[in-house]
Amino acid sequence: MYTIAVCDDEKKEINNIVKLLKKFSKNNELNFKIETFLSSNELFCYIREGNIPDILFLDIYMEHENGIEAAKKLRDFGFENVIIFITTSKEHALEAYKVNAIQYLVKPLEEQKLFMILKKLTEIYEKEPEQYIVLRINGMIQRILVSDIIYCEAQKNYQCIHFIDGSKKKIRITMTALYDYVHKWPEFVKVGCSYFVNLSHIKSLNSKELVFVNGKTFYLPRGTYAALKEAYFQYYCNQEV
């Protein structure tokens, strides 16, 4: 699923873009989740909550804030995904590229040109599978390489993510929500209610503990060894124990 955000202070323009996006997704059998915003403030609130669209359509001429300035704030906040500007004029084209916008579309949007851009973007996403998750940590949007994570543990209202280099980061999120970010990678499995581990980084394990390839020791919660051992063998050997 691709999440696409559209930010424009004119409802009519939003409806036009959404109509085209739905047509493209239907024609290409793609699943689009489309979020719409009538102001940059609404968009900022959405992203600050940890919602990161894959593609952002951003109007330049909005009543309360210029779209270029809004894009600068998003980049400073850590938003790295695709921005496509939509506008009634080519006046700000140079500024648009200074904030790494990939395209600058003039209203009314041409269906053929929009579809060509979307086709190119979705093909790139398909060829380069996502290897990162994007989380809000210490007030900043941060992109985390999934393969760097060795395990995560719950600490009251926070989750502590441990990395292969020995560092760790705390994030205010539920274990369920954080696991939802990584569960599509088969190497991540839950260990009890308060942990998940990356099987690809396990060097050895027994009924009491496991040792990661970086030397870090993880003590297993009671009653979790059997399920973890089975998951470990299935991951590496594709066989049941």
Describe this structure in words.
- The structure is a single chain.
- The protein is of the alpha/beta class and 241 residues long.
- It contains seven helices and 15 strands.
- It has a five-stranded parallel beta sheet with strand order 2-1-3-4-5. A five-stranded antiparallel beta sheet has the order 10-9-8-12-11, with helices on both faces.
- Strand 13 (202-205) and strand 14 (209-212) form a beta hairpin.
- It is elongated.
- The mean pLDDT is 88.
Primary descriptors:
241 residues, alpha/beta, 31% strand
Topology record:
Blueprint: E1 2-7, H1 11-27, E2 32-37, H2 40-48, E3 55-59, H3 67-77, E4 82-87, H4 93-98, E5 103-106, H5 111-127, E6 132-137, E7 140-145, E8 149-155, E9 158-163, E10 168-171, H6 175-182, E11 188-191, E12 195-198, E13 202-205, E14 209-212, E15 217-219, H7 225-237
Parallel strand pairs: 1-2, 1-3, 3-4, 4-5
Antiparallel strand pairs: 6-7, 8-9, 8-12, 9-10, 11-12, 13-14, 14-15
